[in-house]
Every structure is written in structure tokens, then in C-alpha cells.
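thought: user wants a sequence for this fold. calling inverse folding tool.
action: design(structure=
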């Protein structure tokens, strides 16, 4: 029987305690919404991140053993494969697996944190750091229950890599050479974009070796095996090279060849193209333009999606600090603590790549903050243990440890308690999509904005034009154009874009469908082609059915959707923005209705007042659902020469103020008013939350 020493027993206990704490904190959301039907479907909680449905689709298709051609199902990607594995071996429903998997996988981060502390001979620091890191704002937000995404291991795996690197350098045991290489292989399998962080670790080890440990042959062995693991080639090839390299490096008789092996590994890394994607990927988040252009043909200009994604935007310092440590004071102390920890234990300088990547959030967006969380958690934990160990009595020492730890945990707990994130879709919306599974064929398309692409594919098992991974400007333009154009132009664009997308699949063509349409219809200017959609042009032959997904919630993002098509593709210049204003917090003040933001409806003059300007109203429309949930519209024409319209959606308690272009747009006519042109669209499902139409052309 294996006998464990006291330190090892304490290590296991701390890991179990921190892991349990992390799991329980993530179950607060479940307790808060237990039995809340809008967040449940078929008796199971739904997930709360759009991208999660991408991985869920892949896992579902792997389990079913089928996936339609060109559906972009991620059956070859790690998150889908691992999920399918767990779904097969665990006695729980598939929905439960994808909902709870982030809770348990993300909580594994406590293991490498405590093991790193163990090699630094400070287990209490490890426990405190693990408790804080596991529930810090940004890490919790991206690994909470239901947040089914790659983030559930995106910090766990690099922390295990950091642990194996530190233990390798500290212990100089050959086994950690192999563990480090395997960590890299697994990390790259799970998250292909990991190369930047891996290369940063390599660079820091190289720098650390030259400065502090230049004559240590073991460090060069570590660098060599890391290079082979980091090559840009098949995982099986890299695994084979790692195996051979480990065998050679573990034989002392080959020590004199280590520098040659390192040289070969570096050459192999660069020759394989290992460095090529490193800067390119990070620059996507650092250098963002609002407009992109194609490099061939018409050189069309498109609005880029990066400026509309909150996680890729700039964030205030207080938000930045809170997301990493829970509080600005904790964050500042964590920085001081990490600097002091690195001074006392120079090996912790190897964690700088994760700190640096976390600080990239200040320019690249809040998604990066999670990388700095565990490292700066070490910083504040080290300060706490340093203060406590200098206290005169054991009682004061333990009391200070507990009190200081609770103080840094409390702001993060408060955040968790108040962070009541909704599911991606509510029960009603999912019921509509689930019903579509029996109406539409797997080869049919359902057109919706890219935010809804993955859930549409998962629940309705159809194809989409855009989704969370396919939303470049040239892809979003046609969908935006459909939503904001007249019904005739929208219907023609829908048929054109679907058929041209399928043609691109058949011919392996990756160019813009809009550009190809322009050429095929004999135009040299895309603006002229778009104008032709208002004429009787010949459309491609129909190869499949097309459905439109029009949710009520899209009202909130309609101005953003409009950005993608409200521009001249030939020049990149934006057009005049359509006027659109939504008010749900209005006040009826007898003679006027105050919509907020200095906008109100003057009932006496039937005009909209915006600041000091008074504008006449063209139409006042009131929509109402009866007991059978049939929509009725009451249209009052006031001034046919006016440009503004007011729509009162009484059952939604929502006012819309919009100009003629927005009023006549396909989305408003079909979703808000249900005024569909029967020659173009057929009603399929008309629900107050979601409306689905079938294209008839």
C-alpha cells in the first residue's frame, strides 16, 4: 500500500477543497433559476452562450454518426469530440452534459495552481490563489454553468503547461520533458490558436536560461522537445517526433548532442510554418478596421464584424481590473504581489506570457482578461501568506489567512450572485426551432442574423448562411441587405445568396457571392446590380427551400445589422443612416409621450420632437394580439409627405420610431406587422417571439 507523506495529503485535500468550492459557486445560477420554465426545454436547462451550440451540433452529429455535406458541423474538432465521449460514457442526458460540463472542466484549474505552489513550498498560497482564480469575474463569466465553449479548458491547459515547465526546470526530471510536450500537443488539439502562448513560453524559457541558468543542459532539452511539439504539422507526426526526441534526450550519452537537436528542432519549427500564424492571429484583435476590402476583382469594401463584438472592444481600467481580480484594490495588490513573488522565485517569471496576454485586453478586448486571472491570483495570495507568516502567533496567522482570503473572495462572490445571465433562447423560441426540424429538410436553409446561426442549426438541423464563425463582412452583407430592404429585393437576394453559396461549395470557390452575382448579371458596378433587384431579373433555379428566421429580440440589434449593408460597396463610404429608435421605458404625459433621450411624441401636433426639432408623422400604427394570438394592425395615416412613422407594439409595451426605409424593410413588414407579400413569402410559424416565413421564389 502506498504511503503518502503529510505534504502530499495536504496537497490532495487543498485540491479537493478548492475544486468543490469552484463547483458549488457555479451552481448558484442553477439554484437561482431552478424551475424557471423560460430557461428550460424538455425539462432541461439550456446553455447560455451562442457558440456552445456549435460544439453541441458537432457532438450530436458524432453520436448520431451523420452530418450533412457543407454544414460546417465541427465533428473533427476537440470540443465536440470530447463532449461526445462524455455524453456516451456518462449516465446523463446530452443536454445535461453540455450544460454542466463547463462547471467541472473549468474547475480543474485549481490542480496546476496548487501544484505550482507545492514546488514553491507554499501550499497555502496555492489554496488561496486557486480559490480566487476559480471564481474571478472573467474566468467565472466564461466558464459558468451553461457556458459551453472552449474556454472551459482554455486556461486549465496552459496552466498545466506552466506547471510542467516549472516542475521540469525545478526538478530536472526527464518525465517533465515528456509531460510538457504532451501538454502542448493536447493544448493545440483542444485550441488550435494556442501557438502564440506556446511560443511565448518557449521565448521566456530561452530568456530565463540565458540570464539565470545558461549552463544547464536540461533547459535546452526542454526547449528542443517543446519546439518539436509546437511544429505546424499533424498531431500524429508531432507525437511521433516527441516520442523519439524524449527517448534520445532521456539518455545521458546523447547530452553532447543537445545543442544540435535544439538547432534541428528550431529549423523544423520555422520550416513547417510554425511561426506564420502567431502574429497574424493576435493582430486581428489589435488592429481592427471598420471596413475590409477584397483583393481581387471589383475590390469591394465590406463592413467588418470586429467593431460590433463587445468582447473585442476597448474596456475601462476599472472593468479590466475587476474582471481579473474582482476589485481594483485587489488587482493593484496582485500586481505588487506577483512582482514580489517573481523576485523571490524567479521561476514565476515564466508566467509572464499569460499576464501579457491578459493585459492585451486593454487594447484587444475583455475576452483576454481570463489569462491573467490565475497568475495575478498567485500575486495577492503570496502577499497574504507573507503577511500572515510574520504574525506573532499561530492563531493570528490562521485568522489573518482566513480574513484576507474572504476579503478578496467576497467581491467575486457578489458578482456571481448578481450575474443572472439568461439562456441564449427562451423556451418559446426553441419550441419554434424544434418544430421546424419536422418541417424543413436538412439541406434547406434558414436565414437569420449570425448571432442566431449556431442555435438554428442545432435545433432545426438546417443550413445557415451566417453563424458565429462565418460572419465576415462579405457574408453578412447579403443577410443585412435582406433584412433592411424591401420585400421584393430581400426575396431575390435570399434566393440568390443561397444558390450562389451552394455553387461556391461545389466549385470550392471562396470569393464574395455578391461580387460573383455582379459579374454573372453583366454589371461592373455592384450598386447597379443591387438596383436591378427591383426589376424583373431571372433568378437561379431553386434547389432547396429557404426560410427566414425573424425574432422579436432582433429589434435590439437592428441598427447594428443595418451597418453591414448601409454602405457603398464600390467605395466603402457609408450611406445616410436610417432612423430607428426603440423605447420600452416611456411615459404617457397626457399631451405627449416621453420616449427618453430627449425624444417624445406630441399628441396635439401629431409630431415627433427630437431635441429642438419637431418632425411630422407619416403613420401611426398600433399592433395587438387577440386571444387566439392573431395579430391585428391599426394603421392611421397622418401625413403622407412625412418621413417618420410610429409603431406601438401594445403587447410588447414597445414603441418604434422609424423612417420610411426602415418601415418598408422586410424585417419590419414581416416580423412587426405581418404584412407579407403573398407572392414572395409564405407564413410558416407566426409566434409573438419568433416568426418564420418560407421563400416562394
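)
observation: tool returned 697 residues.
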Amino acid at each position: 500500500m502506498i504511503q503518502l507523506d503529510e505534504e502530499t495529503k495536504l496537497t490532495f485535500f487543498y485540491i479537493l477543497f478548492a475544486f468543490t468550492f469552484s463547483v458549488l459557486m457555479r451552481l448558484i445560477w442553477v439554484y437561482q433559476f431552478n424551475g424557471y420554465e423560460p430557461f428550460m426545454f424538455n425539462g432541461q436547462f439550456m446553455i447560455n452562450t451562442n457558440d456552445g451550440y456549435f460544439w453541441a451540433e458537432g457532438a450530436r452529429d458524432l453520436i448520431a454518426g451523420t452530418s450533412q455535406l457543407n454544414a460546417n458541423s465541427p465533428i473533427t474538432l476537440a470540443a465536440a469530440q470530447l463532449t461526445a465521449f462524455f455524453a456516451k460514457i456518462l449516465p446523463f442526458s446530452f443536454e445535461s452534459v453540455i450544460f454542466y460540463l463547463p462547471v467541472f472542466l473549468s474547475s480543474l484549474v485549481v490542480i496546476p495552481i496548487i501544484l505550482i505552489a507545492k514546488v514553491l513550498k507554499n501550499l497555502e498560497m496555492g489554496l488561496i490563489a486557486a480559490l480566487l482564480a476559480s471564481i474571478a469575474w472573467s474566468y467565472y463569466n466564461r466558464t459558468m454553468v451553461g457556458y459551453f465553449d472552449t474556454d472551459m479548458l482554455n486556461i486549465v491547459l496552459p496552466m498545466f503547461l506552466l506547471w510542467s515547465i516549472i516542475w521540469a526546470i525545478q526538478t530536472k526530471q526527464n518525465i517533465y520533458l515528456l509531460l510538457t510536450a504532451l501538454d502542448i500537443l493536447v493544448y493545440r488539439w483542444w485550441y488550435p490558436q494556442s501557438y502564440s502562448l506556446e511560443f511565448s513560453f518557449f521565448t521566456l524559457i530561452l530568456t530565463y536560461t540565458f540570464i539565470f541558468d545558461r549552463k544547464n543542459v536540461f533547459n535546452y532539452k526542454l526547449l528542443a522537445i517543446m519546439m518539436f511539439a509546437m511544429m505546424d504539422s499533424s498531431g500524429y507526426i508531432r507525437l511521433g517526433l516527441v516520442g523519439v526526441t524524449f527517448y534520445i534526450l532521456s539518455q545521458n550519452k546523447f547530452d553532447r548532442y543537445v545543442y544540435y537537436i535544439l538547432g534541428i528542432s528550431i529549423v523544423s519549427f520555422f520550416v513547417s510554418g510554425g511561426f506564420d500564424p502567431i502574429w497574424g492571429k493576435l493582430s486581428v484583435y489589435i488592429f481592427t478596421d471598420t471596413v475590409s476590402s477584397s483583393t481581387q476583382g471589383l475590390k469591394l469594401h465590406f463592413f467588418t464584424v470586429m467593431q460590433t463584438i463587445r468582447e473585442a472592444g476597448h474596456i475601462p481600467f476599472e472593468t479590466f481590473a475587476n474582471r481579473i481580480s474582482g476589485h481594483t484594490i485587489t488587482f493593484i495588490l496582485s500586481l505588487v504581489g506577483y512582482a514580489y513573488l517573481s523576485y523571490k522565485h524567479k521561476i514565476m517569471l515564466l508566467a509572464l506570457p499569460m499576464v501579457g496576454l491578459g493585459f492585451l485586453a486593454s487594447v484587444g478586448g475583455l475576452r483576454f482578461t481570463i489569462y491573467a486571472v490565475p497568475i495575478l491570483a498567485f500575486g495577492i495570495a503570496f502577499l497574504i501568506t507573507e503577511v500572515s507568516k510574520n504574525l506573532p502567533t499561530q492563531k493570528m496567522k490562521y485568522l489573518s489567512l482566513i480574513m484576507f482570503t474572504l476579503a478578496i473572495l467576497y467581491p467575486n462572490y457578489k458578482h456571481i450572485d448578481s450575474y443572472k445571465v439568461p439562456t441564449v433562447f427562451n423556451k418559446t423560441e426553441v419550441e419554434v426551432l424544434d418544430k421546424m426540424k419536422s418541417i424543413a429538410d436538412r439541406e434547406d436553409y434558414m436565414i437569420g442574423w449570425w448571432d442566431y446561426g449556431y442555435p438554428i442549426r442545432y435545433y432545426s438541423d438546417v443550413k445557415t448562411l451566417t453563424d458565429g464563425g462565418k460572419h465576415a463582412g462579405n457574408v453578412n452583407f447579403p443577410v443585412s441587405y435582406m433584412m433592411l430592404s424591401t420585400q421584393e429585393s430581400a426575396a431575390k437576394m435570399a434566393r440568390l445568396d443561397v444558390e450562389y453559396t451552394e455553387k461556391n461549395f461545389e466549385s470550392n470557390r471562396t470569393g464574395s457571392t455578391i461580387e460573383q452575382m455582379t459579374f454573372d448579371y453583366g454589371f461592373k458596378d455592384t450598386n447597379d446590380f443591387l438596383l436591378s433587384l427591383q426589376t424583373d431579373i431571372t433568378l437561379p433555379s431553386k434547389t432547396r427551400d429557404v426560410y427566414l428566421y425573424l425574432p422579436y429580440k432582433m429589434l435590439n440589434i437592428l441598427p447594428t445589422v443595418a451597418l453591414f449593408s448601409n454602405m457603398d460597396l464600390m467605395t466603402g463610404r457609408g450611406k445616410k443612416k436610417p432612423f430607428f429608435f426603440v423605447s420600452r421605458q416611456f411615459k404617457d404625459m397626457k399631451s405627449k409621450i416621453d420616449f427618453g433621450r430627449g425624444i417624445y411624441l406630441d399628441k396635439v401636433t401629431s409630431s415627433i420632437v427630437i431635441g429642438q426639432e419637431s418632425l411630422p408623422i407619416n403613420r401611426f400604427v398600433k399592433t395587438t394580439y387577440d386571444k387566439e394570438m392573431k395579430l391585428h394592425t391599426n394603421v392611421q395615416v397622418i401625413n403622407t409627405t412625412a418621413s417618420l412613422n410610429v409603431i406601438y407594439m401594445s403587447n410588447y409595451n414597445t414603441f418604434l420610431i422609424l423612417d420610411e426605409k426602415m418601415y418598408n424593410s422586410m424585417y419590419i413588414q414581416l416580423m412587426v406587422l405581418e404584412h407579407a407579400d403573398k407572392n414572395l413569402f409564405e407564413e410558416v410559424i407566426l409566434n409573438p417571439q419568433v416568426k418564420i416565413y418560407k421563400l416562394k421564389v
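thought: summarizing for user.
answer: Here is the designed sequence. The first strand starts at residue 40 and ends at 41.
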